User: Fold this.
Amino acid sequence: MDLHLGDVESAEARFRRRDGSGVDNAYLEAWRDLSWAAVACLRKDWTEARRRFEVGTKALEALQAAPDPDDALELEWLSTRLDEDPAF
Assistant:
């Protein structure tokens, strides 16, 4: 939610806590990259955003994991943000 409100600092703090929680599974690992891709988008760091998006989406594809409805909305939101990249 923080990202959707444009509160990048709050989102980063939440993601750092999550990343340091010790919870580890392949699905969450993919979403780590996607979460940081979203942060990079809002910071207009398009290279990092695209790199993380590619890593995260490939990881999801490798798992053959269909995102739940909430995750699907997050992916759509992130794809829309990436479309703002002036290089594309």
Remarks:
- The chain has one domain: 8-82.
- Residues 46-63 form the longest helix (18 residues).
- The CA atoms of residues 15 and 35 lie 7 Å apart.
- The mean pLDDT is 86.
